[in-house]
Amino acid sequence: MGYDSTNIFAKILRGEIPCKKVYEDEFALAFHDIHPKAPVHILLIPKGAYVSFEDFGEKASSQEIAGFFKALSKISKDIEETQKGCRILSNKGINGGQEVPHFHIHLFAGRPLGPMLSS
Ligand code: AMP
């Protein structure tokens, strides 16, 4: 599947839609999820056009990949709620429940997060 540049995260990256920004550098942008599923629910997206984690790992440069995961680490370390524990998750495709076709990682924290899958 090719990258669809009309997706909502592409629009956020282009500044066409606002977001509640948490962090930004040359590789990544993090912002609060619009429908949070935990007291802390942050989305981290790469600046480049990648559909999923598979696409990112296959096509992104080593610098982009390192920069992205360094950003994830920095954000998590800077948030007080993650110190008691947190979870990251990345959905891919229909069965994964991916709604937005721009690679993103969810970061959840702020309460006990329960079992890994709901069922
Ligand atoms: P996924 O199902 O993994 O593709 O997750 C997409 C996430 O994007 C969902 O948790 C949505 O609540 C979130 N979302 C959709 N539109 C926006 C937006 N404009 N700003 C912030 N989060 C959004």
Enter the CATH topology name: HIT family, subunit A
- Which strand-content bin applies to the residues? 15-25%
Q: What oligomeric state is this?
A: single chain
Quote the average pLDDT.
97
CATH superfamily: HIT-like
* General form: globular
How many domain units? Answer: 1
In the CATH hierarchy, the architecture is: 2-Layer Sandwich
Amount of helix: 25-40%
CATH C-level name: Alpha Beta
What's the number of extended β-strand segments? 5
Report the order of strands and helices: HEEEHHEHE
Flag low-confidence runs: none
Total helical segments:
4
Question: Largest sheet, if any?
Answer: 5 strands, antiparallel
Strand order of the largest sheet: 1-2-3-5-4
Sheet/helix structural class: alpha+beta
Give a list of the ligands.
adenosine monophosphate
Distance between the termini: 28 Å
Computed CA radius of gyration, to the nearest angstrom: 14 Å
